[in-house]
Protein backbone atom coordinates (compact mmCIF):
# COMPACT_ATOMS: atom_id res chain seq x y z
CA UNK A 1 0.00 0.00 0.00
CA UNK A 2 1.12 3.58 -0.46
CA UNK A 3 2.93 5.69 2.09
CA UNK A 4 -0.29 7.63 2.54
CA UNK A 5 -1.11 5.28 5.37
CA UNK A 6 1.01 7.57 7.50
CA UNK A 7 -1.35 10.44 6.74
CA UNK A 8 -4.96 11.01 7.62
CA UNK A 9 -7.11 8.58 5.63
CA UNK A 10 -10.55 9.89 6.43
CA UNK A 11 -13.06 10.04 3.62
CA UNK A 12 -13.02 13.84 3.65
CA UNK A 13 -9.23 14.17 3.51
CA UNK A 14 -8.00 15.99 0.40
CA UNK A 15 -4.61 15.03 -1.03
CA UNK A 16 -2.45 17.40 -3.02
CA UNK A 17 -1.22 16.53 -6.50
CA UNK A 18 2.33 16.37 -5.15
CA UNK A 19 1.40 13.98 -2.32
CA UNK A 20 -0.43 11.63 -4.67
CA UNK A 21 2.43 11.55 -7.17
CA UNK A 22 4.99 10.98 -4.41
CA UNK A 23 2.99 7.99 -3.15
CA UNK A 24 2.85 6.49 -6.65
CA UNK A 25 6.57 6.93 -7.35
CA UNK A 26 7.49 5.62 -3.90
CA UNK A 27 5.68 2.37 -4.71
CA UNK A 28 6.54 1.79 -8.38
CA UNK A 29 9.94 0.18 -9.00
CA UNK A 30 11.93 -0.23 -12.23
CA UNK A 31 11.44 -3.58 -13.93
CA UNK A 32 14.16 -6.22 -13.62
CA UNK A 33 16.73 -6.19 -16.46
CA UNK A 34 16.68 -8.84 -19.19
CA UNK A 35 18.86 -9.70 -22.20
CA UNK A 36 17.20 -8.89 -25.52
CA UNK A 37 18.04 -9.03 -29.20
CA UNK A 38 18.87 -5.50 -30.31
CA UNK A 39 15.74 -5.03 -32.43
CA UNK A 40 13.57 -6.24 -29.56
CA UNK A 41 15.35 -3.75 -27.30
CA UNK A 42 14.15 -0.70 -29.25
CA UNK A 43 12.70 1.83 -26.83
CA UNK A 44 14.30 0.12 -23.83
CA UNK A 45 16.84 1.55 -21.40
CA UNK A 46 20.36 0.14 -21.17
CA UNK A 47 21.36 -1.01 -17.69
CA UNK A 48 25.10 -1.22 -18.35
CA UNK A 49 27.74 0.52 -20.45
CA UNK A 50 28.44 -0.98 -23.86
CA UNK A 51 32.16 -1.13 -24.75
CA UNK A 52 33.45 -1.29 -28.30
CA UNK A 53 34.97 -4.74 -28.93
CA UNK A 54 36.42 -3.87 -32.34
CA UNK A 55 37.35 -0.52 -33.88
CA UNK A 56 34.96 1.07 -36.32
CA UNK A 57 35.79 1.06 -39.14
CA UNK A 58 37.93 -2.04 -38.52
CA UNK A 59 40.32 -1.18 -41.36
CA UNK A 60 41.36 1.75 -43.55
CA UNK A 61 38.80 2.00 -46.36
CA UNK A 62 37.78 4.19 -49.25
CA UNK A 63 35.11 6.85 -48.85
CA UNK A 64 34.72 7.20 -52.63
CA UNK A 65 34.45 5.16 -55.81
CA UNK A 66 37.76 5.80 -57.57
CA UNK A 67 41.36 4.66 -57.71
CA UNK A 68 43.77 3.79 -54.93
CA UNK A 69 47.12 5.45 -55.73
CA UNK A 70 50.51 6.43 -54.37
CA UNK A 71 50.77 10.17 -53.68
CA UNK A 72 54.04 10.60 -55.58
CA UNK A 73 52.51 9.09 -58.73
CA UNK A 74 49.82 11.80 -59.02
CA UNK A 75 51.81 14.81 -57.81
CA UNK A 76 51.32 17.71 -60.23
CA UNK A 77 48.63 15.91 -62.27
CA UNK A 78 46.27 18.07 -64.34
CA UNK A 79 43.87 17.71 -67.25
CA UNK A 80 46.58 19.03 -69.60
CA UNK A 81 49.27 16.79 -68.11
CA UNK A 82 47.52 13.84 -66.46
CA UNK A 83 49.29 11.12 -64.53
CA UNK A 84 48.89 7.87 -66.47
CA UNK A 85 48.89 4.79 -64.25
CA UNK A 86 48.58 1.06 -64.88
CA UNK A 87 45.39 -0.42 -63.40
CA UNK A 88 46.25 -3.66 -61.58
CA UNK A 89 42.68 -4.73 -60.77
CA UNK A 90 39.59 -4.05 -58.68
CA UNK A 91 39.20 -3.78 -54.91
CA UNK A 92 35.57 -4.31 -53.94
CA UNK A 93 33.88 -3.98 -50.55
CA UNK A 94 34.22 -7.24 -48.62
CA UNK A 95 37.25 -8.37 -50.62
CA UNK A 96 39.75 -10.35 -48.57
CA UNK A 97 42.70 -10.81 -50.96
CA UNK A 98 44.13 -7.35 -51.60
CA UNK A 99 46.21 -6.19 -54.53
CA UNK A 100 49.64 -4.58 -54.09
CA UNK A 101 49.87 -1.06 -55.50
CA UNK A 102 53.43 -0.44 -56.62
CA UNK A 103 54.98 2.73 -58.15
CA UNK A 104 53.21 3.74 -61.34
CA UNK A 105 50.16 1.61 -60.53
CA UNK A 106 46.57 2.15 -59.37
CA UNK A 107 43.78 -0.15 -58.20
CA UNK A 108 40.16 0.62 -59.04
CA UNK A 109 38.44 0.79 -55.65
CA UNK A 110 34.83 0.93 -54.47
CA UNK A 111 33.34 2.84 -51.53
CA UNK A 112 33.89 0.88 -48.31
CA UNK A 113 36.60 -1.36 -49.79
CA UNK A 114 39.84 -1.75 -47.81
CA UNK A 115 42.78 0.38 -48.90
CA UNK A 116 45.23 -1.99 -50.60
CA UNK A 117 48.88 -2.28 -49.52
CA UNK A 118 51.11 0.35 -51.08
CA UNK A 119 48.28 2.82 -51.73
CA UNK A 120 48.32 6.08 -49.81
CA UNK A 121 45.21 7.90 -51.08
CA UNK A 122 42.09 7.55 -53.21
CA UNK A 123 41.30 9.77 -56.18
CA UNK A 124 37.57 9.92 -57.01
CA UNK A 125 36.61 8.49 -60.38
CA UNK A 126 35.41 12.00 -61.36
CA UNK A 127 39.08 13.12 -61.26
CA UNK A 128 39.98 10.54 -63.92
CA UNK A 129 39.08 9.41 -67.43
CA UNK A 130 37.82 6.11 -66.03
CA UNK A 131 40.29 4.27 -68.27
CA UNK A 132 38.50 5.41 -71.42
CA UNK A 133 41.29 7.63 -72.71
CA UNK A 134 39.11 10.73 -72.89
CA UNK A 135 38.16 13.58 -70.50
CA UNK A 136 36.86 13.31 -66.92
CA UNK A 137 34.01 10.84 -66.35
CA UNK A 138 31.07 11.00 -63.97
CA UNK A 139 31.15 7.38 -62.82
CA UNK A 140 32.26 3.81 -63.38
CA UNK A 141 30.71 1.30 -65.71
CA UNK A 142 29.49 -1.86 -64.00
CA UNK A 143 32.13 -4.59 -63.80
CA UNK A 144 29.70 -7.14 -65.25
CA UNK A 145 29.19 -4.97 -68.33
CA UNK A 146 32.79 -3.78 -68.81
CA UNK A 147 35.25 -6.05 -66.97
CA UNK A 148 38.11 -4.48 -68.93
CA UNK A 149 37.81 -1.43 -66.63
CA UNK A 150 39.80 -3.36 -64.01
CA UNK A 151 42.85 -3.37 -66.28
CA UNK A 152 44.62 -1.14 -68.79
CA UNK A 153 45.53 2.43 -67.94
CA UNK A 154 43.83 5.36 -66.22
CA UNK A 155 44.58 9.07 -66.55
CA UNK A 156 44.39 11.03 -63.29
CA UNK A 157 43.70 14.76 -63.74
CA UNK A 158 44.25 16.03 -60.19
CA UNK A 159 46.81 15.39 -57.42
CA UNK A 160 45.85 13.87 -54.06
CA UNK A 161 47.28 14.38 -50.60
CA UNK A 162 48.16 11.48 -48.34
CA UNK A 163 45.07 9.81 -46.82
CA UNK A 164 42.71 11.73 -49.12
CA UNK A 165 39.29 10.06 -49.24
CA UNK A 166 40.43 7.37 -46.80
CA UNK A 167 38.36 6.52 -43.73
CA UNK A 168 40.93 5.57 -41.12
CA UNK A 169 40.73 2.52 -38.88
CA UNK A 170 39.00 3.54 -35.64
CA UNK A 171 38.04 7.01 -36.92
CA UNK A 172 34.45 6.41 -35.69
CA UNK A 173 35.12 4.53 -32.45
CA UNK A 174 38.13 2.57 -31.22
CA UNK A 175 38.25 -0.77 -29.44
CA UNK A 176 37.83 -0.20 -25.71
CA UNK A 177 35.84 3.03 -26.11
CA UNK A 178 32.44 3.35 -24.47
CA UNK A 179 29.88 3.14 -27.26
CA UNK A 180 26.73 3.72 -25.18
CA UNK A 181 26.27 4.60 -21.51
CA UNK A 182 23.93 2.91 -19.07
CA UNK A 183 20.64 4.79 -19.02
CA UNK A 184 20.58 5.33 -22.79
CA UNK A 185 17.21 4.81 -24.48
CA UNK A 186 17.76 2.66 -27.56
CA UNK A 187 16.46 4.28 -30.72
CA UNK A 188 17.34 3.53 -34.35
CA UNK A 189 20.76 5.29 -34.30
CA UNK A 190 21.80 3.46 -31.12
CA UNK A 191 20.67 0.12 -32.54
CA UNK A 192 22.67 0.87 -35.70
CA UNK A 193 25.77 1.47 -33.57
CA UNK A 194 25.25 -1.76 -31.63
CA UNK A 195 24.99 -3.72 -34.85
CA UNK A 196 28.04 -1.95 -36.32
CA UNK A 197 30.24 -3.00 -33.40
CA UNK A 198 28.95 -6.55 -33.51
CA UNK A 199 26.57 -6.57 -30.54
CA UNK A 200 23.53 -8.76 -31.21
CA UNK A 201 22.05 -8.58 -27.71
CA UNK A 202 22.02 -6.05 -24.87
CA UNK A 203 20.94 -5.99 -21.25
CA UNK A 204 18.04 -3.61 -20.75
CA UNK A 205 14.99 -2.93 -18.66
CA UNK A 206 12.04 -4.12 -20.77
CA UNK A 207 9.30 -1.80 -21.90
CA UNK A 208 6.50 -2.09 -19.32
CA UNK A 209 3.27 -3.81 -20.31
CA UNK A 210 0.34 -1.53 -19.55
CA UNK A 211 -3.26 -2.74 -19.66
CA UNK A 212 -5.86 0.01 -20.19
CA UNK A 213 -9.46 -0.72 -19.29
CA UNK A 214 -12.44 1.65 -19.52
CA UNK A 215 -15.71 1.18 -17.68
CA UNK A 216 -19.27 2.26 -18.36
CA UNK A 217 -22.42 0.62 -19.70
CA UNK A 218 -22.95 3.68 -21.92
CA UNK A 219 -19.76 3.10 -23.89
CA UNK A 220 -19.83 1.87 -27.48
CA UNK A 221 -16.87 0.96 -29.69
CA UNK A 222 -16.06 3.18 -32.67
CA UNK A 223 -17.72 2.07 -35.94
CA UNK A 224 -20.71 0.70 -34.03
CA UNK A 225 -24.09 2.38 -34.08
CA UNK A 226 -24.95 4.58 -31.12
CA UNK A 227 -28.11 3.79 -29.21
CA UNK A 228 -30.09 6.10 -26.96
CA UNK A 229 -27.94 7.45 -24.14
CA UNK A 230 -24.75 5.92 -25.52
CA UNK A 231 -21.37 7.50 -26.37
CA UNK A 232 -18.25 6.23 -28.05
CA UNK A 233 -15.42 4.96 -25.87
CA UNK A 234 -12.58 7.42 -26.44
CA UNK A 235 -10.74 7.13 -23.12
CA UNK A 236 -9.32 3.67 -23.65
CA UNK A 237 -7.97 4.68 -27.06
CA UNK A 238 -6.47 7.93 -25.73
CA UNK A 239 -4.81 6.26 -22.75
CA UNK A 240 -3.50 3.31 -24.76
CA UNK A 241 -1.97 5.72 -27.27
CA UNK A 242 -0.55 7.82 -24.44
CA UNK A 243 0.98 4.75 -22.78
CA UNK A 244 2.67 3.79 -26.05
CA UNK A 245 3.89 7.35 -26.48
CA UNK A 246 5.41 7.13 -23.00
CA UNK A 247 7.37 4.03 -24.05
CA UNK A 248 5.14 1.18 -22.90
CA UNK A 249 3.72 -1.85 -24.65
CA UNK A 250 0.05 -1.07 -24.17
CA UNK A 251 -2.96 -3.36 -24.41
CA UNK A 252 -6.43 -1.91 -24.74
CA UNK A 253 -9.38 -3.79 -23.24
CA UNK A 254 -12.84 -3.06 -24.62
CA UNK A 255 -15.22 -1.12 -22.40
CA UNK A 256 -16.59 -3.12 -19.48
CA UNK A 257 -20.19 -2.63 -18.36
CA UNK A 258 -21.07 -1.32 -14.92
CA UNK A 259 -21.25 -4.75 -13.33
CA UNK A 260 -19.00 -5.50 -10.38
CA UNK A 261 -18.45 -9.20 -11.05
CA UNK A 262 -17.75 -8.68 -14.75
CA UNK A 263 -15.30 -5.90 -14.00
CA UNK A 264 -13.63 -7.90 -11.25
CA UNK A 265 -13.11 -10.98 -13.40
CA UNK A 266 -11.85 -8.87 -16.31
CA UNK A 267 -9.25 -7.19 -14.12
CA UNK A 268 -8.11 -10.53 -12.71
CA UNK A 269 -7.84 -12.03 -16.22
CA UNK A 270 -5.65 -9.15 -17.39
CA UNK A 271 -3.12 -9.35 -14.55
CA UNK A 272 -1.13 -12.06 -16.35
CA UNK A 273 0.04 -9.58 -19.02
CA UNK A 274 0.36 -6.43 -16.93
CA UNK A 275 3.23 -4.61 -15.28
CA UNK A 276 0.80 -1.73 -14.69
CA UNK A 277 -2.98 -1.52 -14.93
CA UNK A 278 -4.92 1.66 -15.72
CA UNK A 279 -8.68 1.95 -15.41
CA UNK A 280 -10.79 4.92 -16.40
CA UNK A 281 -14.25 5.70 -15.06
CA UNK A 282 -16.21 4.53 -12.05
CA UNK A 283 -14.12 6.21 -9.34
CA UNK A 284 -16.45 9.01 -8.27
CA UNK A 285 -19.33 8.93 -5.80
CA UNK A 286 -22.23 7.82 -8.02
CA UNK A 287 -24.41 4.77 -7.38
CA UNK A 288 -23.05 3.09 -10.52
CA UNK A 289 -19.37 3.87 -10.02
CA UNK A 290 -18.43 0.20 -9.68
CA UNK A 291 -14.63 0.41 -9.93
CA UNK A 292 -14.36 1.10 -6.21
CA UNK A 293 -16.55 -1.88 -5.38
CA UNK A 294 -14.80 -4.23 -7.79
CA UNK A 295 -11.28 -3.27 -6.74
CA UNK A 296 -12.21 -3.49 -3.09
CA UNK A 297 -13.40 -7.04 -3.76
CA UNK A 298 -10.16 -7.89 -5.52
CA UNK A 299 -8.21 -6.34 -2.69
CA UNK A 300 -10.00 -8.46 -0.08
CA UNK A 301 -8.36 -11.56 -1.58
CA UNK A 302 -4.91 -10.05 -2.09
CA UNK A 303 -1.91 -10.69 0.08
CA UNK A 304 -1.08 -8.27 2.85
CA UNK A 305 0.02 -4.92 1.55
CA UNK A 306 -2.17 -5.00 -1.55
CA UNK A 307 -5.30 -3.03 -2.24
CA UNK A 308 -6.43 0.15 -3.92
CA UNK A 309 -7.09 3.41 -2.10
CA UNK A 310 -9.53 5.96 -3.53
CA UNK A 311 -8.91 9.62 -2.88
CA UNK A 312 -10.02 13.14 -3.52
CA UNK A 313 -7.28 15.36 -4.88
CA UNK A 314 -7.00 19.13 -4.73
CA UNK A 315 -6.94 19.46 -8.51
CA UNK A 316 -9.19 20.30 -11.44
CA UNK A 317 -9.87 18.34 -13.56
CA UNK A 318 -9.26 14.94 -11.98
CA UNK A 319 -10.41 15.21 -8.37
CA UNK A 320 -11.31 11.49 -7.88
CA UNK A 321 -8.30 9.14 -8.14
CA UNK A 322 -7.39 5.65 -7.08
CA UNK A 323 -4.01 4.00 -6.59
CA UNK A 324 -2.64 0.79 -5.16
CA UNK A 325 -1.63 -2.72 -6.14
CA UNK A 326 -3.58 -5.88 -6.90
CA UNK A 327 -3.02 -9.58 -7.38
CA UNK A 328 -0.40 -11.94 -5.92
CA UNK A 329 2.37 -10.07 -7.77
CA UNK A 330 1.22 -6.70 -6.44
CA UNK A 331 0.73 -5.17 -9.88
CA UNK A 332 0.42 -1.36 -9.59
CA UNK A 333 -3.00 -0.02 -10.57
CA UNK A 334 -4.04 3.56 -11.20
CA UNK A 335 -7.76 4.27 -11.36
CA UNK A 336 -8.51 7.46 -13.27
CA UNK A 337 -11.75 9.42 -13.59
CA UNK A 338 -14.02 8.89 -16.59
CA UNK A 339 -14.37 12.37 -18.06
CA UNK A 340 -12.06 12.48 -21.10
CA UNK A 341 -10.05 15.54 -20.14
CA UNK A 342 -9.83 14.46 -16.50
CA UNK A 343 -8.62 11.07 -17.63
CA UNK A 344 -5.95 12.42 -19.97
CA UNK A 345 -4.66 15.08 -17.57
CA UNK A 346 -4.47 12.42 -14.84
CA UNK A 347 -2.48 10.19 -17.17
CA UNK A 348 0.06 12.93 -17.86
CA UNK A 349 0.47 13.78 -14.19
CA UNK A 350 0.49 10.29 -12.66
CA UNK A 351 0.54 7.39 -15.15
CA UNK A 352 3.26 8.66 -17.48
CA UNK A 353 5.75 9.15 -14.61
CA UNK A 354 4.90 5.65 -13.35
CA UNK A 355 5.58 4.14 -16.79
CA UNK A 356 8.86 6.00 -17.11
CA UNK A 357 9.85 4.83 -13.63
CA UNK A 358 9.15 1.21 -14.59
CA UNK A 359 11.43 1.73 -17.60
CA UNK A 360 14.27 2.82 -15.34
CA UNK A 361 14.52 6.37 -16.66
CA UNK A 362 15.93 9.10 -14.44
CA UNK A 363 13.78 11.93 -15.82
CA UNK A 364 10.19 10.72 -15.68
CA UNK A 365 8.31 14.01 -16.02
CA UNK A 366 7.19 16.11 -18.95
CA UNK A 367 9.31 19.25 -19.38
CA UNK A 368 7.97 22.45 -17.88
CA UNK A 369 8.65 26.09 -18.68
CA UNK A 370 7.41 29.58 -17.89
CA UNK A 371 5.29 31.42 -20.44
CA UNK A 372 3.34 34.64 -20.75
CA UNK A 373 -0.43 34.10 -20.69
CA UNK A 374 -2.17 35.45 -23.79
CA UNK A 375 -5.92 35.68 -23.33
CA UNK A 376 -8.70 38.24 -23.64
CA UNK A 377 -9.84 37.98 -20.04
CA UNK A 378 -8.61 36.70 -16.72
CA UNK A 379 -8.63 32.96 -16.06
CA UNK A 380 -10.58 31.87 -12.99
CA UNK A 381 -9.74 28.89 -10.83
CA UNK A 382 -11.41 27.30 -7.78
CA UNK A 383 -9.78 28.12 -4.47
CA UNK A 384 -7.64 25.38 -2.99
CA UNK A 385 -7.27 23.39 -6.23
CA UNK A 386 -4.42 23.19 -8.70
CA UNK A 387 -6.02 23.70 -12.08
CA UNK A 388 -4.67 22.36 -15.37
CA UNK A 389 -6.01 24.16 -18.44
CA UNK A 390 -5.35 23.15 -22.02
CA UNK A 391 -3.28 25.55 -24.08
CA UNK A 392 -1.06 26.06 -27.10
CA UNK A 393 2.53 27.14 -26.51
CA UNK A 394 4.82 29.04 -28.89
CA UNK A 395 7.72 31.45 -28.52
CA UNK A 396 7.40 31.91 -24.77
CA UNK A 397 3.65 32.50 -24.85
CA UNK A 398 0.71 30.24 -24.04
CA UNK A 399 -2.89 30.65 -25.15
CA UNK A 400 -5.82 28.75 -23.59
CA UNK A 401 -7.91 26.54 -25.89
CA UNK A 402 -11.45 25.49 -25.01
CA UNK A 403 -13.10 25.98 -21.66
CA UNK A 404 -12.55 24.38 -18.29
CA UNK A 405 -15.11 21.59 -18.89
CA UNK A 406 -13.67 18.10 -18.42
CA UNK A 407 -15.66 16.72 -21.36
CA UNK A 408 -14.24 19.01 -24.09
CA UNK A 409 -12.25 16.56 -26.22
CA UNK A 410 -12.01 18.82 -29.28
CA UNK A 411 -10.06 21.43 -27.32
CA UNK A 412 -7.78 18.73 -25.94
CA UNK A 413 -6.93 17.66 -29.48
CA UNK A 414 -5.67 21.20 -30.22
CA UNK A 415 -3.58 21.56 -27.09
CA UNK A 416 0.15 20.94 -26.81
CA UNK A 417 0.53 22.24 -23.26
CA UNK A 418 -1.14 22.40 -19.86
CA UNK A 419 -1.40 25.77 -18.10
CA UNK A 420 -0.90 25.31 -14.36
CA UNK A 421 -2.84 27.55 -11.98
CA UNK A 422 -1.61 27.04 -8.38
CA UNK A 423 -3.94 26.18 -5.51
CA UNK A 424 -3.69 29.64 -4.01
CA UNK A 425 -4.68 31.54 -7.16
CA UNK A 426 -8.32 32.13 -8.04
CA UNK A 427 -7.65 34.47 -10.95
CA UNK A 428 -4.81 34.89 -13.47
CA UNK A 429 -4.66 38.10 -15.48
CA UNK A 430 -3.61 38.32 -19.13
CA UNK A 431 0.14 38.94 -19.45
CA UNK A 432 0.93 37.02 -16.27
CA UNK A 433 3.83 34.56 -16.39
CA UNK A 434 2.54 31.05 -15.70
CA UNK A 435 3.94 27.54 -15.41
CA UNK A 436 3.37 25.38 -18.48
CA UNK A 437 3.68 21.61 -18.89
CA UNK A 438 4.79 20.84 -22.46
CA UNK A 439 2.97 17.85 -23.93
CA UNK A 440 4.62 17.66 -27.36
Structure description:
The protein is of the alpha/beta class and 440 residues long. It is 19% helix and 29% strand. It has 8 helices and 29 strands. It has helices spanning 17-27, 71-74, 188-196, 235-246, 260-270, 291-300, 340-359, 409-414, and strands at residues 14-15, 34-37, 45-46, 50-51, 61-62, 66-69, 83-91, 105-109, 121-124, 153-156, 166-167, 178-180, 201-205, 209-215, 219-220, 231-232, 249-256, 276-280, 307-313, 315-316, 320-326, 331-336, 368-373, 379-380, 386-394, 397-400, 417-421, 427-428, 433-438. The strands form 8 sheets. The protein has a 7-stranded mixed sheet with strand order 1-19-21-22-18-14-17, with helices on both faces. It has a 5-stranded mixed sheet with strand order 9-6-8-7-10. Strand 25 and strand 26 form a beta hairpin. Helix 1 (17-27) packs parallel to helix 7, helix 4 (235-246) packs parallel to helix 7 (340-359) and helix 5 (260-270) packs across helix 6. The longest helix has 20 residues, at 340-359. Residues 1-10 have low confidence and may be disordered.
